[in-house]
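Give me the fold.
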Amino acid sequence: MRFLEDIKVGHRRELGSFTFTAELIKTFAAQFDPQPFHLDEDAGRRSLFGGLVASGWHVAAVGMKLLVADGQRETAAQIAAGETVATWGPSPGFRELRWLKPVRAGDTISYANQVETVRATATRPGWGIVQARNIVTNQHGEQVMTFMATAFVPRRSDAG
């Protein structure tokens, strides 16, 4: 992972894509969001959605999986190149979560992350804060979800 000094406003990471199947939608919903329109095609057809749809939390969880996998790939490449790898801190949260369009069985969703702010912290020496807009689109290029994520990132000048 990169240090604060290496991150620039506007940098965009394409994190990958994922295809939602009816089976995956129902399995996730049964365990974590058991609303009828996530569990049953007929109930979905009778709902505002007009069909089976994925839980927004499922869409977000897949995005987290892809974000972590992208970070692992970046870390492996840095290690192979003999570079110092930054160990990021926790996320103090996210905001502006919007589920804009339903995700249906058969949809392939792509995830991207674009840096909006980078700053050092006054209260935590050696750390900075990065805010990035997460943009999730379907196979038609339509945004289905967006949110702003925040993460603590170490400064290179304080790396051991």
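The helical segments are 22-32, 36-39, 41-46, 56-80.
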